[in-house]
Design brief:
- There is one protein chain.
- This protein is mainly beta.
- It has one domain: Outer membrane protein transport protein (OMPP1/FadL/TodX) (Porin), CATH 2.40.160.60.
- Helix content is 13%, strand content 53%.
- It contains 9 helices and 23 strands.
- β9 (207-230) and β10 (234-257) form a beta hairpin.
- The termini are far apart.
- The relative contact order is 0.19.
């Protein structure tokens, strides 16, 4: 009941805004699998206590302290998306491949002369990593006789007690488009007095629903990190991180009459949307790695919330065929907004993270060429419900109230959860063989929303005379949910998402 109450408040707050953020926008910058070099990907992303890899700059900067030489690293890759959806009993599937990349950058490590410093060595790194890849296509369809996409517009107009002038002009990215195309129309009482609004979609006899979204972009992070090595026993480090986000969604949604009745005032309607979001911000990561005894490493890292400023743009249109009622009508937000996209600026604070890690290194000696194997594992806690939206307009009480509702919704529908990663490597002179796995728990508080991610990975590595090449394949099994629309007065329908993402990653590096 609490969730329904919060959702009602959230949707009510959205009604008087040009367009609105929703809790899913916050999750897009929080729930993702670990990305990095091919070596890190091969061991399941476990990098909390291992160190000696540039990806430590984005996970536990203390790991940079193991560097005593200089390296340059380049990591191209390919993502193979295989999506499967079940929406109201109908199965659909689709594939989309996309270029991605792992950690790219350089590390400068140097040893200190005895007696000059308490540090045995120190290191500095500049790197960029793609934390999340948004290149994907999500498409599903099914028959629905319980609700319609059009009802969100109906709810909006009824909640606001909007008159016909408001319905025509005040909701230019949604309800006004529906009203102008007669997808939503007035109801009348005696004397033709307007008494309310109605949807022309014949829900009781059912409609075919189609949701098709193509997404592009990525969540990128530039990191400037430094670390110090105290007597090859304790490593401490921190990094300053600059998140850069680009996200674009082209959405096509359609409902079609399930019957062949030409006189029920509905044939179909189509909704199209082009949404773009750009963000830039700042955050920090700090950590330590300690060797209590030979062969054991214990690591801890803390990722502060990232503050990200966003600027969103949206354009939308509706085409509806209500048969003899009003024929085929089309309307676009461009026509109602002088040809301009809708623009919204706001700030997002992402959830904080904490990572505890343990590694066991066989033959732990300073000459890494003589090390024979390792086993490493991470436990990562992410407080998904801690994400917060903030208005970029300090003087708008309306926006402040709206974002308060959004944040209450986030606290209600998300929770904190634990991610686990495990990996191992065996070394034969210049060749390495690696295996790994990971589990990412559900961010949803509602047990009916089943979501998790399992990852299995393996790879090979070659190192000789200052040059190294690593090749990895990782496979992530996904389970998630997708809501085509949200309503406050009836149960919301959603698609169950399964499928997988295969990643082929190669790292090229050399010492200089």
């Amino acid at each position: 009941m609490k969730l329904k109450y919060i959702l009602t408040l959230f949707l009510s707050a959205c009604s008087s805004l040009l367009f609105a953020q929703n809790p899913e926008d916050a999750l897009r910058t929080a729930w993702f699998t670990q990305n990095g070099t091919a070596r890190v990907m091969a061991i399941g992303g476990a990098m909390g206590s291992l160190g000696g890899d540039i990806t430590a700059n984005h996970v536990n900067p203390a790991g940079l302290g193991l560097y005593k030489t200089r390296e340059f690293i380049l990591t191209p890759g390919l993502a193979l998306n295989n999506n499967r959806f079940n929406f109201r009993g109908t199965d659909t599937s689709g594939n989309k491949n996309a270029f991605q990349y792992g950690t790219i950058g350089a590390v400068w490590g140097n040893s200190q002369k005895p007696g000059y410093s308490k540090y045995t060595s120190s290191a500095f790194a500049i790197s960029v990593n793609q934390l999340a890849n948004y290149q994907n296509r999500e498409s599903f369809r099914g028959v629905n006789n319980m609700s319609s996409f059009s009802e969100q517009y109906l709810e909006e107009l009824v909640r606001d007690r909007a008159d016909t002038n408001a319905a025509l002009s005040n909701y230019i990215f949604g309800s006004s488009l529906a009203f102008r195309t007669f997808l939503i129309d007035t109801t009348s009482g005696p004397g033709n007095i307007v008494t309310g609004y109605q949807s022309m979609v014949p829900i009781s006899t059912g409609v075919n629903q189609l949701y098709d979204a193509i997404t592009r972009g990525g969540y990128h992070e530039i990191a400037f990190g430094t670390a110090g090595n105290v007597q090859d026993k304790l490593y401490v480090g921190f990094s300053v991180n600059l998140p850069i986000i680009f996200y674009n969604r082209e959405l096509f949604y359609k409902e079609t009459d399930l019957t062949s009745n030409p006189n029920n005032s509905f044939s179909f309607f189509e909704y199209k949307e082009n949404f773009t979001s750009n963000g830039f911000g700042i955050g920090g990561k700090l950590g330590l790695i300690y060797k209590p005894v030979e062969m054991w490493r214990i690591g801890f890292a803390f990722h502060t919330p990232q503050w990200i400023g966003f600027k969103d743009r949206i354009g939308s249109s509706i085409t509806a065929n209500t048969e003899s009622y009003a024929g085929t009508r089309s309307e676009t937000s461009d026509n109602l907004n002088s040809g301009n996209a809708g623009i919204r600026e706001y700030n997002l604070t992402t959830p904080w993270r904490a990572i505890f890690s343990v590694s066991h290194v066989f033959r732990e000696i300073s000459d890494t060429r003589q090390q024979r194997a390792f086993i490493t594992g991470d436990l990562e806690y992410v407080n998904y419900r801690a994400a917060r939206f903030h208005s970029a307009d300090d003087i708008s009480e309306q926006l402040d109230n709206y974002y308060q509702f959004v944040n209450e919704t986030i606290k209600d529908i998300y929770k904190g959860n634990i991610n686990a990663r495990l990996g191992a490597e065996v070394k034969f002179n210049t060749f390495m063989f690696r295996l790994g796995g990971a589990y990412y728990g559900s961010p949803y508080n509602n047990e009916n929303l089943q979501a998790n991610r399992w990852l299995a990975s393996g790879g090979l590595g070659y190192r000789n005379k200052g040059v190294f090449i690593d090749l990895t394949y990782s496979h992530t099994f996904n389970q998630d949910v997708r809501f085509p629309y949200l309503l406050s007065d009836k149960p919301n329908t959603f698609a169950e998402q399964t499928g997988s993402i295969g990643r082929v990653v190669m790292t090229l590096g050399f010492k200089f």
